Amino acid sequence: MSVLARSVGNAFRNKVRSAAVVAVLAVAIGLALAMLVANQAVGAKVQELNASVGTVLTVNPAGGQGFEGGGEPLTPAQAARAAGVPNVTAVVGTKALRLRNATEAAAQTAAGQTGGPGGGFGGPGGQSATLTTSLTVAVDAGTLGNRNQETGTTGATGTTQPVRSLPLTATGIGAEVDSTGKALELTEGTGLGDYTVSSTKALLGTTLAEKNNLAVGSTFTINSTTFTVVGLFDAGTAFGNNALYVTLPAAQALAELPDELSTMIVTVNSMENVDAAKSALQEALGSDKADVTQGQRNLETAVSSLDSVKNISFVAFVAALGTAGLIILLIMVMLVRERRREIGVLKAIGARNRTIGLQFVLEALVLVALGSAVGAAIASFASGGIASALVSSNTSTTAVAGRGAGVPGGTGFPGGGAGLPGGGPLGGASQLLTSVTASASPGVIAAGIAAVFGVAIIGALVPALLTARIRPIEVLRGE
Amino acid sequence: MIEVKNLVRTFKTGDRTIKPVNGVSFELEEGTLASIVGKSGSGKSTLLSLLGALDKPTSGDVVVNGVSLAGMPDGKLTEYRRRDIGFVFQQFNLIPNLSALDNVMLPMEFAGVRKPMRDQRARELLQQVQLDPEKHGRRINRLSGGEQQRVAIARALANEPKLILADEPTGNLDEQTGEHIIELLSSLSRDHNTTILVVTHDRQLANKTDRRFRLQQGRLTEEPARDRAGAAAGVEAGVGTAAV
């Protein structure tokens, strides 16, 4: 009988006790693995959040924040200057267009209202005259929209104005990202591809396409230009999906402002360089010409909440791992004390210290292996719930505070309580925070079990070394 | 040949120093079946533990086939126990969750004997001690006391030791089983030319050995042997070495 076979036999010598030890170990190991899985899931989510918005800066015309109005529009020359700032990896210009349904606009004209919407419809960010489109907006104006509308429709004629829908946002983009710098998630079709002034390709939000019965390949008009739908995207929010994207040159051509940008989305090479790049950008563009805002700032609180969850789960993992090690240590110390005489017998018949020590370490590992198997099963069921509980208890305040707080900027069209199309970064962050999913991947479980075995070996070594101190004379005790 | 030279073992209990073994010397030739008798607490087991390198003497030496145990490092003492010594205990001291066969194979495993060889030898030894082959695979706790002692003797013989030390081998057995065990030890001593030293307080058992020693207050004296029955008074072994 080999040392291993003897160790397995010893592990089951007292079945009731072994079952109890395995059960206690399984709880500790299961908790450790669940915490590791939660830690990995939250870590991945933090990386995702940082990767999505953490390194993006938004440049707006100075004074063009929200409804404040004023300022000079951004120019391609400024975009080139921004691209030259150290640590800046990409600069994407956007041009926002306000579109109104052509039929509705004609009705308003006939009713005598020639001005743009007042009050709440104040178009910040250098928006020029409203363009007309064949598209019908997919979002109802709601209470806020109608309130704004009342203010705006009290025209010079004093006549009752017809009911209007919200304006539609069209954004000209220089790359396939939304107005927050996040890559567009296409659900159908392809990207815009050709970024020339002659491009008549467009990407539509799914709800806007559905409202207008459009699919990939369908056409619609903006002013007199016919555009073809080449792809549909899902921005994740109702207002985000009530939008469309065309190429930047096409938008500039439609607005008849070829040298104007509404915003610039600046990507910095790493999180560490964001602050420095922001200062450098502000200096390069001039504080009286452009405002540089940092989406990551808004996200910091949310990410720090997730970071604290990550830290808590790591500490809990280490604590559970330590507990498992301590359980092994105490159990093996107890077994060594209990088997002093047997150890004496083994020494009396010529067993080396290392042979006896190895036997005890292997016996501990047999118990740990069983505990790990049960613990892994526990972790696979419990890790999702534990991760959700940790995230929700640590991020609820942040998520509530951050909800709906989009990035302020010249592209912010009002109405119906909507912010930017696609929502600001923190709106997206709130969604991301609640979407942390912990799945017990085999790799993470294997890494966790390896750590458990490492701790178990350390825990078992102490009692194994104790066996070396037991003298063979123990065999004669009680004789 | 086993030579014991002026062996002393002292223990301190508080301010008192006791000497269960106090200047013991004797020699035993190969193949001798010898016994040490004495009252409980006379130091018999202590002397046995010194001979078997389970304990270290305060002074004196044990020389086995010309090799001195004094100053030998622990690793070498372990090797000595593995190769040269076989132990038989009053309480058998077998590993309870192993079978009779596995218990006998254990010393051979520690000595590095390959599995097929140790399996064969263990079966032969169990046959020699007359354990029913059906019981070879049984767990120890399912064997009677006599059967367990037979297994213990087989285990002691596993590595063909030069010296078997038996501490009250019949102490836990009934009279008849005890006689069988002592006959077994006697025949093994003859057949294997193995020196066997039995510690006992049973005078009847001691009378069946080739040489008899008495341990009293740490001093060893030799009593007349059975083949020299009626001889004069015994010789104090510690003073005048008695060899056969």
List the SSEs and their pairings.
The complex is a heterodimer of chains A (479) and B (244).
Chain A: H1 3-11, H2 15-54, E1 56-61, H3 76-83, E2 88-101, H4 102-110, E3 131-133, H5 142-152, E4 168-173, E5 186-189, E6 201-205, H6 206-211, E7 219-222, E8 225-233, E9 243-247, H7 248-255, E10 263-268, H8 274-285, E11 290-294, H9 295-338, H10 340-348, H11 353-402, H12 425-434, H13 442-469
Parallel strand pairs in A: 2-3, 4-9, 6-8
Antiparallel strand pairs in A: 1-10, 1-11, 2-4, 2-10, 5-8, 6-9, 7-8
Helix pairs in contact in A: 1-11, 2-9, 2-11, 2-13, 9-11, 9-12, 9-13, 11-12, 11-13
Chain B: E1 2-13, E2 16-28, E3 33-37, H1 44-51, E4 59-64, E5 67-68, H2 74-84, E6 85-88, H3 100-110, H4 115-128, H5 145-157, E7 163-167, H6 175-192, E8 195-200, H7 203-207, E9 211-216, E10 219-223, E11 235-236
Parallel strand pairs in B: 3-8, 3-9, 6-7, 7-8
Antiparallel strand pairs in B: 1-2, 1-4, 4-5, 9-10, 10-11
Please report the total strand number of chain A as a whole number: 11
Q: Can you tell me the overall shape of chain A?
A: elongated
CATH topology title of chain B: Rossmann fold
The global form of chain B is: globular
Total individual domains of chain A: 2
What attributes characterize this protein structure?
heterodimer, A: 479 residues, alpha+beta, 2 domains, eleven-stranded mixed beta sheet, 13 helices, 51% helix, elongated, B: 244 residues, alpha/beta, Rossmann fold, four-stranded antiparallel beta sheet, 7 helices, 11 strands, 33% helix, disordered C terminus
Write a structural description.
- The complex is a heterodimer of chains A (479) and B (244).
- With 479 residues, chain A is an alpha+beta fold.
- Chain A contains 13 helices and eleven strands.
- In chain A, strand 2, helix 4 (102-110) and strand 3 form a beta-alpha-beta unit.
- In chain A, helix 2 packs antiparallel against helix 9 (295-338).
- Chain A is elongated and about 115 Å long.
- Chain B is 33% helix and 27% strand.
- Mean pLDDT of chain B is 85; it is low at 228-244.
- Chain B has 244 residues and is of the alpha/beta class.
- In chain B, the strands form two sheets. Chain B has a seven-stranded mixed sheet.
- Chain B contains seven helices and eleven strands.
- The radius of gyration of chain B is 18 Å and the shape is globular.
